[in-house]
Amino acid sequence: MAAERLVVIGGDAAGMSAASQARRLKGPDALEIVAFERGHFTSYSACGIPYWVGGDVEARDDLIARTPEEHRERDIDLRMRTEVTELDVAGQRVKALDRESGETYWTGFDKLVIATGARPVRPALPGMDAAGVHGVQTLDDGQALLDSLDALRSEGPRRAVVVGAGYIGVEMAEAMLKRGFEVTVLNRGEQPMATLDADMGRLVHEAMDGLGITTVNGAAVTKILTGPDGRVTEVATDARTYPADVVVLGIGVEPETGLARDAGLPVGPHGGLLTDLAMRVVGHDNIWAGGDCVEVLDLVAGRTRHIALGTHANKHGQVIGSNIGGGYGTFPGVVGTAVSKVCDLEIARTGLREKDARAVGLRYVTATIESTGRAGYYPGAKPMTVKMIAELRTGRLLGVQIVGRDGAAKRVDVAAVALTAGMTVEQMTALDLGYAPPFSPVWDPVLVAARKTVAAVRGAGS
Description:
about 450 residues; alpha/beta; FAD/NAD(P)-binding domain; Enolase-like, domain 1; 3 domains; 5-stranded parallel sheet; flavoprotein; redox-active center
């Protein structure tokens, strides 16, 4: 009996995790695996790119978990610099373009994994394709940015404009600052970090100002201006222009699902592919999808959303590979946990923001507290702000946001577990968390916030 053929589109986290897991469960005599990757690299940490650009990570290869050669040693036919340009669902085949030779050819499949990832949002504005304007989604993007920086003159002012103030934006602002650039962040929103409520975003803004990063809110970019050589010189908004030797786009990403859309596969309201709990594309028994190209269920809101994170992508790949290889796995959903930093300021969130709760019809109360990450008398104790959102009447935890220093961000994991378990804020006050003066006050900041939120729930009820 001939081996089944698994075709994987995309050679990063979800795609190669799926291929590797399927290979562990089925040998080459039972399952042939062909994977296509249009770039130069496989199985790398895109989340680490800002830290490589900023110099915290010394070498590009430090971000690579497994090379193409290592995948091939595991009997995976990995074809680099090869882009899938067409998907024939009915005919169970994909059309591929070898970017080096220009050759195109069709490859049939019995099972298919779509792991095409996400692409940086690049508004259709004049000058967006100019030299010196960079997105940072792939290792190729990161290398192109570094090459561009190396080409700049070393004398005189070096000015970087970052467009967008989400996770990518603030991380790239830090990277440019570390490389000695004068940094301006242009943000369309009310405050940086739109994944936080505006009152918490304001804390991020204040901290960025203190670091020497100029953040301009309510600044919508209208065009990129260039010099005679075609390279960026300024970034224009409705109000004024900002000089720039390099521009980094940190507006966010969107699912790379054009191939799937053209093939008639189902996509959700956020543009991502829709899958069942086994990560199988809805309505297609032999097609799976995972990573940044899919939508996932928000366990708190009860709706699908698009979240581009390597943690989810690797889990998706494990689930997909298990199911293809004859095992069993599911991905139940997420609570929306994310952490980031800008220099020594740590930023974390999980669950719903206030506007998210309103959007799904939930009534809620909030509480915000200020505490420290260690006992107040212990050397090095630094301030931390925690905001908690709970459902009116029931007290069910809905979301937590944390801004601070000295270990603030990872405290959000306690809230993520509580959200996943469906705990109330009153139940959270009894959690047996670790305590010693170097690590926490007697009442951990998350528990202090929970106690204050309990009081808000009771006050609203009365």
